[in-house]
């Protein structure tokens, strides 16, 4: 594992129609680390994640996978390099766990060889690694929220991409399943060497699991660094408009944010 960047985002601008979302944003994603994107609603976190997977075409700038512009890669090649689990994914309730996870192997298949021994190996490893192998014949509609989220992560893991992008993977999960899911993400990073790019709203979870924390605001990078560097009263106030107390987590040694009150914002400013 090296400190060389897995992804370089260079002066990226992107929007929806005439509305600008990302404005000349530049960022480096380190290889083999967990990078967490955090910021207020509408700051461009999910849009940036989708741009990395080339689901949105930028109006300016570029995204480099190592030294290659992702705009020059074929779709299957890109899908072999970058996996994305979107926010609140959906699939038919009568689909089985096995059927969904097998879809992760699609980028590796061809008309001449629709399913190979490598596909079987990757599929079984993803099922075992996420702890869902015993659910393989269950229908998705019969699973709990925590089980279903593990199955979706298994599908992304089955792609065997070096880079895994997860958009709010703990959204709508209770506290126990949030920790369970993020512990699994950490395991994918440490055991399999995956580069993880993760969108989280909960700052304390972000500080606990991130190697690199990125604060976004108004479509630009407000600050980037280790959680210990970014979780300060000044930055929390500037990025989130919240006065907060920052203490050290006695169990994990990471910073903890205790919100005190919101700062008054001038509408239209």
From TrEMBL:
Coiled-coil spans in chain: none
Membrane topology (UniProt): Peripheral membrane protein
Keywords: ATP-binding, Cell membrane, Ion transport, Iron, Iron transport, Membrane, Nucleotide-binding, Transport
Naturally occurring in which organism (per UniProt): Devosia litorisediminis
Protein name: ABC transporter ATP-binding protein
GO biological process: iron ion transport
GO cellular component, one term: plasma membrane
Entry-linked PANTHER family: IRON(3+)-HYDROXAMATE IMPORT ATP-BINDING PROTEIN FHUC
Main location: membrane
InterPro entries according to UniProt: AAA+_ATPase, ABC_transporter-like_ATP-bd, ABC_transporter-like_CS, P-loop_NTPase, Siderophore_ABC-ATPase
